[in-house]
Design goal:
two-stranded antiparallel ribbon; 18% strand; single chain; 7 strands; 2 domains; alpha+beta
Length: 293
């Protein structure tokens, strides 16, 4: 039978946000798995307790960043637009429809005035990974590492050529081992000297912090590299480190591995890398850490 519905848009519904958002919604699973209350203690020292207007709740402020990353939304402006109409987003933030959402400018101003140059973001990351470890979501036996390029907001044709003199880093442990082997067979040890090399590189005029990325069969231009290490059990990210695009994959690897051990007290039994990390220095360092069985 033919039917026409009218005025349904103005229907008054008496429901809570918790009732509107399905029980199995992704954000409800996140809220159940992660305790965000530690952010209060972490950020309290960056706020005045006796003067000024009431600030946006710090947990809400950082949850905005989580929503942005969870859903791959590129700008804070778009996040705020989504919150205006999305019941699940409002539930996650604790902002009912009766309250206005924060201005998109709020996060950037808080970052500039309070958190720029601090380790707050790193500490939030470490705390959440530790929560995952406590919940047995991290195996701690296998670590997979690779990098991916991120395109900088910079024209690849606008750059200056910068020539710098760089002292080539010496591998002291390797030099010592080579000389020990030479002495065993009765040969004179090498005398290693500091070596200088001229380095020519393109420096972008718009984003000088980026680096010119050029590899076979890949996009060329000014990029950043996201060096990321994940645990093998549930692909939990254990470390994320950003460098200019002209930094070799193997460069920061050992330092980041040490950082994982420092942050979480984990010494993995196995590491998984592609051929870009195959170097004598990395093999030596891994051998010291007993990664080879």
């Amino acid at each position: 039978m033919f039917n026409r519905e009218e005025n349904i848009k103005d229907e008054i519904i008496l429901m809570t946000l918790s009732e509107i958002v399905p029980k199995n919604h992704f954000l409800k699973k996140v809220a159940e798995a992660i305790d965000f209350k530690f952010i209060y203690d972490l950020t309290e020292k960056y706020y005045s307790l006796i003067s000024g207007r009431n600030s946006l709740d710090p947990v809400v402020l950082f949850k905005l960043v989580f929503l942005k990353d969870f859903y791959g939304i590129k700008s804070m402006r778009e996040i705020i637009k989504r919150i205006e109409t999305d019941a699940a987003f409002r539930w996650f933030l604790g902002i009912p429809f009766s309250k206005t959402v924060p201005h998109y400018f709020t996060f950037s101003q808080n970052y500039i005035r309070r958190f720029q140059g601090t380790d707050v973001f790193e500490q939030i990351f470490i705390n959440i990974v530790n929560q995952a470890i406590d919940k047995k979501l991290v195996g701690g036996t296998e670590l997979f590492t690779d990098s991916t390029h991120i395109k900088a907001n910079a024209n690849k044709r606008k750059f200056n050529i910068e020539v710098t003199t760089k002292v080539k880093e010496r591998k002291l442990d390797l030099e010592k081992e080579i000389n020990e082997e030479r002495e065993k067979i009765g040969k004179k040890p090498f005398e290693y000297k500091e070596k200088e090399e001229l380095k020519r590189q393109r420096v972008n005029t718009t984003d000088p912090d980026s680096g010119y990325y050029h590899r076979d069969h890949k996009e060329e231009g000014f990029m950043y590299l996201d060096h990321r290490t994940v645990d093998g059990k549930n692909n939990i990210i254990m470390d994320c480190h950003i460098t200019p695009g002209n930094v070799h994959d193997s460069g920061p690897y050992i330092d980041r591995l040490n950082q994982i051990e420092k942050n979480f007290g984990l010494t993995s039994g196995k590491v998984v890398l592609d051929s870009g990390y195959y170097s004598l220095d990395i093999l030596k360092q891994l051998d010291k850490k007993t990664y080879f069985q």
